[in-house]
Amino acid sequence: MVVIHEINQVMYLDTVHGEGIALFIIDYGPQVNTIWVVANRKDGTIRHYDSNQIKLTNNHTLDINVHKN
């Protein structure tokens, strides 16, 4: 069974192609990695990434994931 979840809040992600915004998550079941559908912030290109290929970026509003020295 395939489950597709639309992400309603803005989630900025770091990808190998630059920063992007998460649009959807596709779950094919426990045997397959979760797939993230991401829009590139620079050129709008839509790409699919395994969950182990991305990470959350800084949330400048709430200072989430900000590394302080």
General description of the model:
- The chain has 69 residues and is mainly β.
- It has one domain (3-56).
- The protein is built from no helices and six strands.
- The chain has strands at 3-6, 12-15, 18-27, 35-40, 46-50, 55-56.
- Strands 1, 2, 3, 4, 5 and 6 form a six-stranded antiparallel sheet that branches.
- A hairpin with a 7-residue loop joins strand 3 and strand 4.
- The chain starts with a strand and ends in a 13-residue tail after the last strand.
- The mean pLDDT is 87.
Instruction: State the end-to-end distance.
Output: 45 Å
Major β-sheet annotation: 6 strands, antiparallel
Q: Count of DSSP E strands?
A: 6
**Approximately how much helix is present in the residues?**
under 10%
Low-confidence stretches: none
Number of domains: 1
Q: In DSSP terms, counting alpha (H) and pi (I) runs of 4 or more, how many helices?
A: 0
Question: What is the mean pLDDT?
Answer: 87
Structural class: mainly beta
Order of helices and strands: EEEEEE
Portion in beta strands: 35-45%
Shape category: globular
Radius of gyration: 13 Å
